[in-house]
Amino acid sequence: MTGWTVHTSGAELPVFEYGNPSARSTVLLVHGYPDNHHVFDPLIAELGDTVRVIAYDTRGSGAAVLEPTADVSIEQLARDAFAVVESIPGLTGKVHVFAHDWGSVQMWEAMAAPRATTAFASYTSVSGPSLDHLRQVARARSVRPQRWPSLVGQLARSWYVFGFHVPVVGTRVPALLARFGAEGEPTPTVADQQRGIALYRANVLRRVLRGPDPRCAVPTTVVAPTHDRMLSPNLTDGLDRWIPDLRVVRVDAGHWWPFTHPVDAARVLKARVQEAE
Question: What share of the chain is helix, strand, coil (3-state, %, to 5)?
Fold first, then answer.
């Protein structure tokens, strides 16, 4: 493993390189909350030397350094991702992005940018919906009484999102979430758990209420674990309206599928990589 640091607005992001630096294809791994890049350790081991692997700790997590007043909006998180890509030594082509949870949420923002098609060869999103697509889904279901049970069900799964916005209560939500972790799921650090409060408060409500269309011109695979306790698999409904090249894969697993099922995760990722070679 080798590494370097990327300096972005208000943050220093540690970047780590694994795999084969001479491989034809490069993969960028973007983790979510409340994790750091080590959540991908099993997947990195499974990929081995078949690809060049780049991972990093997003602002405020892991070994990243974040100024107290730094921006944690998904717009800035997307800019961070582009900065990491631009920092990769000797990179000549596009990168394949594999993102999980909040890593996926922020990468939907990056995928909507005009330069996405020149930076990214493919996008694999796991358990991290576009906030703009969630807004579209909520609006569509709210005016159709037969879809109200589905809408209410997702709101119930997302109880912690509202908890983060309540003073005092919000600071206790991360510990509650950690207690719900199942055997085999990663154990986050206390610091990484606390990071989520700022992420949710800075992004969720404002983008679920208003924002751009969730467009993505990059070939995309969306993985929907059927036992995800945070997200309903049917949140993928209607994505084909925004993504011309879309593949939806349902897997018999929970929220942390990349960590608990690295062999399957590597297989899905490699399928997209091989199509682009």
Answer: 45, 20, 35
Q: Is 48 left (phi over 0), alpha (psi -120 to 50) or beta?
A: left
The type of residue at 147 is: R
What lies within 8 Å, CB to CB, of 152 at 6+ separation is none
Compute the mean pLDDT over every residue in the chain, rounded to the nearest whole number. 84
Q: Are 103 and 32 in contact (CB under 8 A)?
A: yes
Residues 6+ apart with CB under 8 A from 167: none
Highest-confidence range of 150-164, 179-193, 202-216, by mean pLDDT? 202-216
Block residue for tokens 């991702």: 81
Closest to 66 measured CA to CA, from 106, 7, 3, 17:
7
Task: Give CA–CA dist 118/72, Å, rounded.
Answer: 25
Give, as one character, the DSSP assignment of residue 120.
Answer: E
Q: At what angle do helices 102-111 and 74-87 cross, to 10 degrees?
A: 80
Among 65, 69, 87, smallest CA distance to 16 is for: 87
Residue 140's alpha-carbon distances to 4, 135, 151, 248, in angstroms, are: 45, 9, 10, 20
pLDDT greater than 60 at residue 94: yes
Angle at 265 between CA 91 and CA 204, to 5 degrees: 80
Strands 2-8 and 11-19: antiparallel
Q: Which two tokens stand for residue 62?
A: 């892991």
pLDDT over threshold 60, residue 156: no
Among 157, 150, 196, residue whose Cα is nearest residue 173: 196
- Please name the helix (run of DSSP H) or strand (run of DSSP E) that holds residue 102, with its range, or none: helix 102-111
